[in-house]
Design a protein that fits this description.
alpha/beta; 5-stranded mixed sheet; 9 strands; globular
């Protein structure tokens, strides 16, 4: 496993949303008590490739602030069962819900959308009441 610094979030307006210094502080406090899984492109269908173990807030030259994490990146030769640090864990969430819907637009390739449907539908029909699941494909408007 190797360590590296990774940017987590910055203050300022990002995608038309204001990220405040207080929000960074709140994120840092959470990271003081839990690990943040390091994933590739936020795709939780695959196992994490590492974990963020700590974070600090750094002032940038432009006056904004950066929440910078220290990540442990797993390597194929690592034996993860030998990691002894149990002071923190990765927070998991679960919630009972009545229904769920997967929606996507047509920006993805037809192959990707078909693959997603093939992966999800057997799970929905085998382990859930199929009437609780729906798949919606939306056309992109120009």
């Amino acid at each position: 496993m190797y360590k590296r610094k990774v940017p987590i979030e910055t203050t300022g307006v990002i995608d038309r949303e204001l990220i405040t210094y207080e929000a960074l502080l709140s994120m840092k406090k959470q990271l003081d008590h839990t690990y943040l899984p390091l994933t590739i492109e936020h795709d939780i269908r695959n196992p994490p490739v590492g974990r963020i173990v700590s974070a600090e807030i750094v002032k940038l030259e432009d006056g904004n602030y950066l929440l910078e994490g220290e990540a442990e990146v797993f390597e194929s030769t690592d034996d993860l069962s030998k990691i002894k640090d149990t002071s923190k864990s990765i927070r998991t969430y679960s919630e009972d819900i009545e229904t769920f819907q997967i929606s996507c637009d047509d920006r993805g390739s037809t192959t990707e959308i078909d693959q997603l449907r093939k992966e999800i539908e057997p799970l929905a029909s085998n382990s859930l009441d199929y009437r609780r699941y729906s798949f919606v494909l939306r056309s992109r408007q120009f």
